[in-house]
Write a structure and sequence with these properties.
Helix content is about 0%, strand content about 55%. The chain is mainly beta. The chain has one domain: Neuraminidase. The longest helix has 4 residues.
């Protein structure tokens, strides 16, 4: 397939053009139209991508592909249906553990706008089906369930976390200010769901969750919701087989009477863990990143954005103590998808502009992963008013 190379050497990409120019290579995505809701995952040196192909009011299909020699392989159809809940912010999850693939999607449970379940599919990468279309949430409540994050478990199977609205049905009788919860469970390689635990009984309604495996076990981050409508980023860790009481990554003290639909992202390597997030506390839209200390708390956060941020962050480790963060920010000329390197010691690189980008919901949440010394990003664009995925790669030496 032909590769399209874009040389970024303009004012929007803030780096010196006296250096070797940063080249952003577009990786063709040639699988029809009406593709959106991507989720890009690196595991064991491979890049996996899941997404939804759908037409509003008609059938939706969950598709999966892996990158091979900078080419997306022919997609595998995981499952499809005409009763799905398809949403730009609540994209399907995917994870692999060895040759086993676990995916999620959302399926309507009733006629209400926000009544849907999390449905899982488990299969081997060779296509062999292990277990099809089984429910993650088994509460039987016609309520909202979603914003799934999943990773390989330490030995076998998977760890999965999600926002759960099973308690909101009762609360809705008294108040429209529903309170979602966040839960975590394990999924075995044969599809058995066990060790389900509620981490927090009051979370933000519709911000993405994130889960990572640290050197000391798993950690989950999410946007909390206090009784005073403070919606900061919290975390919980599994220590001695018990999940800790959620604590703040940092007290931004962002008071907002509605969900910002802007969740955190956490990532780990053999030594360090880092989390990035968006906040608009004190009416200052900001993207931050913080590293986890061995004491179990997080360092003072580092601010990344140069102009007004709109968030939708992702993060990936470049080396043991340095991450790359992707985020969206806007100025008078438009909205841009940008990246910065951030070292644990506080050193920050200049920003690289990956692309000018639509600020609306149709863009979804741009996805970032690192493979060897290349950064890969995927997001949703519109071509002739039809959704399509755009995937690019650039070498980190150009930053």
């Amino acid at each position: 397939m032909k590769r399209i190379s874009i040389v970024v050497c303009i004012g929007l990409a803030i780096f010196s053009c006296s250096k070797k120019a940063l080249v952003i290579n577009e990786i063709p995505f040639e699988f029809g139209i009406n593709n959106a809701e991507p989720n890009l995952v690196e595991q064991d040196g491979k890049l996996s991508l899941s997404w939804v192909n759908s037409i509003r009011g008609e059938k939706a299909t969950l598709l999966y592909s892996q990158l091979e020699n900078d080419t997306w392989k022919k997609p595998i159809t995981i499952t499809s249906g005409s009763d799905w809940f398809v949403n730009w912010a609540d994209f399907p999850a995917n994870a692999t553990n060895g040759d086993v693939l676990l995916t999620s999607h959302l399926q309507k449970s009733a006629s209400g706008t926000y009544t849907y379940d999390v449905v899982l599919n488990l299969r081997k990468l060779n296509g062999e089906i292990i277990k099809e279309n089984f429910l993650l949430n088994t509460d039987g409540m016609q309520a909202e369930h979603g914003f799934v994050s999943v990773i390989p478990n330490e030995k076998d199977g998977f760890l999965i976390t999600w926002l759960d609205g099973r308690n909101t049905v009762k609360e809705m009788k008294e108040s429209h200010h529903k309170a979602m919860t966040i839960r975590v469970a394990e999924v075995s390689s044969d599809g058995t769901i066990f060790n389900e635990t509620q981490l927090d009984g009051r979370t933000c309604d519709c911000c993405q969750t994130s889960i990572s495996m640290t050197k000391n076990g798993p950690i989950i981050v999410f946007r909390d919701r206090s009784k005073n409508e403070i919606r900061d980023i919290y975390f919980s860790r599994r220590i001695n087989n018990k999940w800790t009481k959620p604590a703040a990554v940092y007290n931004d003290n962002w008071e907002i009477n509605g969900c910002p639909v802007n969740g955190p992202k956490i990532v780990s390597n053999a030594i360090n863990t880092a989390v990035s997030w968006f906040t608009a506390a004190n009416e200052q839209p900001t993207v931050k990143v913080s590293f986890l200390l061995d004491t179990g708390s997080f360092l003072e956060p580092i601010i990344l954005n140069d102009v007004e941020a709109s968030g939708r962050v992702d993060i990936a480790f470049i080396s043991f103590d340095e991450v790359l963060v992707s985020y969206m920010e806007s100025d008078a000329n438009g909205t841009y998808l940008r990246c910065k390197k951030v070292n644990k010691n506080g050193k920050i690189s200049k920003a690289v502009t990956v692309s000018q980008i639509n600020s609306g919901r149709s863009t979804g949440v741009p996805q970032l992963e690192i493979l060897k010394n290349d950064a890969y990003l995927v997001w949703t664009i519109s071509i002739d008013e039809k959704n399509q995925l755009k995937s690019v790669r650039f070498n980190l030496d150009g930053m």
